[in-house]
non-specific serine/threonine protein kinase
Amino acid sequence: MGSFVGACEIVEEKDVVRLAKHSGRYCMPPLGSSRDIEQRPALKSEYQGSVEYDIDQLFQSISIKPSPRRVMGSSFHRFETSASAGTSRRTSASTSRSTSPSKKGAMKNPFPMGTPRSPRVGPSDSISLKQALRDLCISKASEMAAQKRLSKSAAASPRVSEADRIKSLYRQVLNESAGRSGLPVDKGKSLVEISLTPVVDIPSSSQSIPQQFDVLETEPSNSISEPSQAKILLPINGNRSGLKIVRCQMLETSLLHKSNKSGSSLSSSSGDYELQLDEDTTYIPHVVIEDSLVEIDKHVTSLPLCSGSKVDSEELDKSIVSSATLKSEPTILISELKGKLDNAPSSGTENGKLVSKVTKYIPRPKLRPKRKILLKRKLKIAIASTTKMVEKVDTSLEPSASELLCQKCHCALKSSSTENHPPTNTNGTEKCSNDLSSSSKIISIEADQESLASPPLNRILKCNKEPKKDSSNSCEVSDSDEAVVVLKQEVSSSSYSGKGDADEQIREHPTSSEKFEFSLSSKNSLGDYSSSTSISEESHLSRFSCGNKPHMSMDVRWEAIKHVKLQHGSLGLRHFNLLKKLGCGDIGTVYLAELVGTNCLFAIKVMDIEFLARRKKTPRAQAERAILKMLDHPFLPTLYAQFTSDNLSCLVMEYCPGGDLHVLRQKQLSRCFSEPAARFYVAEILLALEYLHMLGVIYRDLKPENILVREDGHIMLTDFDLSLRCAVNPTLLRSTSPPEKDPARMSGPYNPSNCIQPLCIEPSCRVPCFSPRLLSTQARNPKPKRTKRPDLLTQQFRSLPQLVAEPTEARSNSFVGTHEYLAPEIIKGEGHGAAVDWWTFGVLLYELLYGKTPFKGYDNEETLSNVVYQNLKFPDSPLVSFQAKELIRRLLVKDPEGRLGSEKGAAEIKRHPFFIGLNWALIRCAIPPELPDIYENGAGEAASSEGNNRYLECKAIGDHLEFELF
Ligand SMILES: Nc1ncnc2c1ncn2[C@@H]1O[C@H](COP(=O)(O)OP(=O)(O)OP(=O)(O)O)[C@@H](O)[C@H]1O
């Protein structure tokens, strides 16, 4: 093998020996013919003795056809189908022979060992002594290795000439392709190129290959009008000495780019190659293979080697590729393909062809943990046939169940092909951890559309260089490109709660007597948790589970967690790399964590159970967990998992990399948001609060610090340990105030009295009930006298019956919240309900617009006093619209009964003129005021420090518990 390495370095693509095609077949004089000997004078003169004899023996032993083992054992060879002498590749290749069409190439290139005397190969060029020596050494080494291997596996399966296998392989592919394309084999264009080449054994410590793929564009042919061709190298299987490559030449490199989008159809202009995405149909690219040219492929010499994987040559005629199906977007495939092939020359002339390299860097998933390109389409790519495979999956990498276990995440990597083709090599005990570290292997390409979105798994699991020692049959999933295993996964995103669902309860410590736990900072939350009107946690939990979150159901993070759970039975802290401390709260510390081996980032809130019990904060932790379990909203965090590890209760949540709104405000000029920006944020918050209320959750701790900014600039409300859960009794409120005595409005479909009956479905009734339309109509047709218009509208809407599904009647006597945000009724201890959220909503809007809260005093006591007694004032600057001030005024009404939203909930607030023109339904698609700088917020930094396994140390600091990373 070492000779291969050395030989690999010598070979240049442009010096590849190309052999002419004859009558649709490659022709070559029989081995040892006089012509051949003439072409190798140096060899003849110098090696007339035993060496020559050896060579002759060696070649003669190879039968008539080229030995696949040899072909595959040589990194220099590439069988390549080619359209004709007039193809673009030919044209390009001729460039390299321009000075000396045959001799130069032969002298510069290693002679194609193993196949030189095959009658399928065209006339060989003269060869130098040096060349001959190299050939001899390499071919002998190759032969010895092959014989050694064959001797081992001889018992496993009947031996068939490898040359026959190659021959059969080609026949199959040709037949299949011809059948599919409807073209005669010898007339088809060169669309698929198959290289069966060995790979130089690259040490596992070799540099990782960048994630990119090459697109080799050949020059258009002079004689045949043929679009530029894109080559994708598709590693199919590892063999004992290297890797077999199926090289697909797709017409039109633009396919690759098209495929980046979730387009539904990709096709070449020539129609020879089709790559289509459709929901229910499997499209098989039309593949036409012409007779091959033998080429030396330098690309593959750089591919990593799966040293431990073995090729059973009998499997050659059972193609892998044909059954390799990809139910995914093509970009994934391309990314996968490229991952292994980027040692190819970046640009220049290769094999006389104009080579342009298209490099696609796969964005770091961890920086885009929310990337969800969700395709509801499936793509299957089958090259050649689904029944005949070019190669079969090497089962040596698989345990008996054709399954690989990733060392860290222990996800199962299954080979689909093995299901149809029982392994002939039953040596399933080989360790993927070691083998894959130096190999490149695609076991199967089958991915469910639901899991494509996420790069983290991306269906590409790459073996790490340093597998763990204690785990055989496993491979480590990492960013390394040394080996690629395409994961076949059955995606069921909603099956989160499974056997391993760590649904451990935080130990129950009933603490109903908790009273008045104050924090020191005026901005810190006060936590006298009480649940006077709370309903039981179980009643919620029975209805919801972590997996039952439709809006996030396609998130690949579910799948990542599911795999860990399936493999380990449960999820624990040991499955996460804690990358960074995000913050420390009253009941726990939040860390940025990566699920080991998946690049999936999470925010994990870690709470010490004993500490909570001692401080009587267990109910708060329980409430938060119960609420998180219920949530499924774009502006609220998703709880992916929960578990107890070492007496630590952990909540695995969605990670928000953009920091919080408090920090974002500080970064603004004059430390406050513009009115449009503030409107955007509070609108999203309003929707989140409305959702919470409808779930029976009164948030009670609204403040900029608890509003996190997602990667996409939208918000996420977090921190529910002070929230109150209560029952919701949806009610239909009829108008309490008489409708306006406006005859114009009293007539026609806008007559609100028409809508009194809740079950009325008269069209004339539905129109006026569609309040946003009415609002937008007013907004679009402003009339001169509009000073009282908002009031009129409000009056009109108030006169309509309305379903209120928010807990307007809930009451609690707890003293909770943050000083500057506390509602008067909480401070006065009069009992409070959902209206406290509308008070805090008003304070928030005030702070976003003015850069400070309205009632802040010198100290907390004064602040509380101001809240209760001080009238609301607005600063002169910055300038704020009347509508904004009016909304704030309506929200900061000290009497909760008169507060906007107290009667009909969020709907009342949404109708306020401040929000006129806002499309509530599509706000999640609106462009946010700004995008967070992820690196600035430390996420990128932390993510880049991957591999640093750090550990937790718990420290109690006063009432707080700190978990230190070291
Ligand atoms: N999902 C998340 N993504 C990113 N950062 C988060 C996430 N959840 C929390 N954080 C960060 O961690 C910090 C601590 O959060 P946590 O919810 O524990 O409490 P808190 O709001 O600071 O305090 P308390 O629980 O006492 O009200 C937050 O300030 C926030 O910056």
